[in-house]
Design goal:
Elements: H1 3-10, H2 12-21, H3 23-26, H4 28-37, H5 44-54, H6 60-71, H7 74-103, E1 110-113, H8 139-152, E2 156-159, H9 168-177, E3 182-187, H10 194-203, E4 206-210, H11 216-223, H12 227-240, E5 247-251, H13 256-259, H14 262-271, E6 275-280, H15 296-312, E7 316-319, H16 324-327, E8 337-340, E9 346-347, E10 354-355, H17 364-369, H18 371-379, H19 398-406, E11 409-410, H20 419-442
Parallel strand pairs: 1-2, 1-8, 2-3, 3-4, 5-6, 6-7
Antiparallel strand pairs: 8-9, 10-11
Length: 453
């Protein structure tokens, strides 16, 4: 009996009914349930960490989980648990492992895709503008990517762009068709309105992630005058509708102090944000502003502050550049995720715009087995220090070698970019980060069991 069938036979509905009556008391029952239906070696370290959280009522993330039951619509919450935890992680992980062994290549846990290159804003430092504004994946192409992904065990899909909500009717239709998947969407949030919120409640499996660069001054600096007010209005509206949503934060040399401040974290909690995804600015594109690249001393402070907030704030935080120790380094190249742009090109990473595969010419699996993604598979991790995971920002030259070896081409539509130019922009900051990262890595005990293979 598979995990999903076990869920049905043991009664997921009854479990939720039970937990909702008293989340603080009954949360441990969820992990007891998960342990019953999950093979012992599947995501063992993650399940152990979650078990510690739900068994400690004083834990800040325990409080966050209780808040979910109190503040999020019941159907949305149940869909998230079924699709994100059961289909995407427990059941999906097992299928992904089988596919990795069968085909000898990376198989993604999540797929990022750009429904469109069009956007109603023009943000400073955004690579999407390089693609132009006329590229789109058709409804049938998005549908096909998801169908192929599910065959490999992938049930998590994350939209980026461009501004994905330019295509919100299509995206809602996709979510409705693939009710067994969870969809997340990086968005500038300016197109979120009452009608869209009602649709989110109806499908239950689509979670917006507004991009905010700090408070008004920092956000409007990158995104345009008045955007901060529109984003906060959208967040308040989603909270009124009892919707789940997160926040995406790109920290730069300019906004670092705000993004990493306790005041900002507390603001997110007060706004009803349930998770925050932190990204370091990457100088993608020929016209990238290198002055925005986060300095080594700022990266170290971000590393320390995010870990401190995890101990006392009821907010789930992910630090894309500094959480490598929990996932075994670089997760790109299909190891845990990949990116498909609005032209159909399969990029190894949302920050690495080079490809040898287009989904209009090859299947998803064929792309994963072609030279570029195979090179990622053969070379990961790119550094034994998991605080230096990236083949560009942390290890300049590693990506250059892969591109030269595989013959992958730049997917920048308007102005193709030489990979050596991209790497060169990162060389000085990489050299400055190395001694700090090596000191941090050597100063802490790293349990090999926490590294997801």
């Amino acid at each position: 009996m598979g995990i999903v069938d076990s869920m049905k036979s043991l009664g997921l509905e009854k479990l939720f009914d039970y937990v909702e009556k008293d989340p603080a008391k009954n949360l441990p029952k969820i992990m007891e349930f998960a342990d019953k239906i999950t093979p012992g070696d599947v995501m063992g370290s993650q399940r152990a960490a979650m078990r510690r959280i739900v068994s400690d009522p004083d834990n800040n993330w325990n409080r966050m989980l209780c808040d979910l039951f109190a503040e999020i619509d019941e159907y949305v919450l149940r869909q998230a648990f079924q699709n994100f935890v059961v289909n995407g992680s427990l059941n999906g992980w097992t299928q992904q492992q089988k596919m990795r062994e069968k085909y000898g290549c990376n198989i993604p846990w999540a797929i990022l895709l750009d429904p469109t290159s069009a956007c109603n804003l023009h943000c400073t430092g955004c690579w999407a503008a390089e693609y132009g504004n006329k590229l789109n994946l058709s409804f049938d192409e998005i549908d096909s990517i998801i169908e192929q992904g599910k065959e490999l065990g992938c049930y998590i899909y994350i939209y980026t762009g461009g501004e994905p909500l330019v295509r919100k009717k299509d995206l809602i239709a996709i979510a409705n068709k693939h009710a067994d998947c969870e969809f997340l969407c990086f968005t500038n949030a300016t197109l979120i309105d009452d009608e869209f919120c009602r649709e989110l409640l109806r499908v239950g499996n689509f979670i917006p992630i507004p991009s905010v660069e700090g408070f008004k001054a920092s956000t409007d600096f990158r995104r345009g005058e008045g955007v901060y007010e529109k984003v906060t209005s959208a967040m308040k509206l989603m909270r009124e509708y009892r919707l789940a949503f997160g926040v995406s934060c790109c920290y730069t040399a300019e906004n670092f102090d705000v993004i990493s401040s306790e005041e900002y974290i507390d603001w997110m909690v007060d706004m009803g944000v349930k998770f925050a995804w932190f990204f370091s600015y990457m100088p993608v594109g020929a016209d990238a502003d290198t002055s925005l690249i986060t300095r080594p001393e700022q990266r170290e402070l971000m590393y320390e502050r995010i870990r401190a907030y995890r101990q006392n704030k009821p907010l789930f935080t992910l630090d894309f550049m500094h959480d490598g120790e929990y996932v075994g380094g670089c997760i790109a190249g299909g190891r845990r995720y990949l990116h498909i742009n609005a032209n159909g090109d399969m990029d190894p990473c949302v920050f690495v715009h080079y490809s040898d595969t287009n989904i209009r010419e090859h299947t998803l699996l064929e792309g994963l087995r072609r030279p570029l993604f195979r090179a990622y598979y053969d070379n990961q991790p790119f550094n034994e220090n998991m605080l230096r995971p990236c083949p560009v920002l942390d290890n300049p030259g590693r990506l250059d070698a892969i591109i030269e070896q595989t013959g992958a081409k730049s997917t920048e539509i308007l102005q193709p970019e030489d990979v050596h130019d991209y790497s060169e922009r990162c060389r000085d900051v990489a050299a400055g980060w190395k001694p700090r990262a090596d000191r941090l890595w050597a100063s802490k005990y790293h349990n090999p069991a926490l590294l997801v293979k």
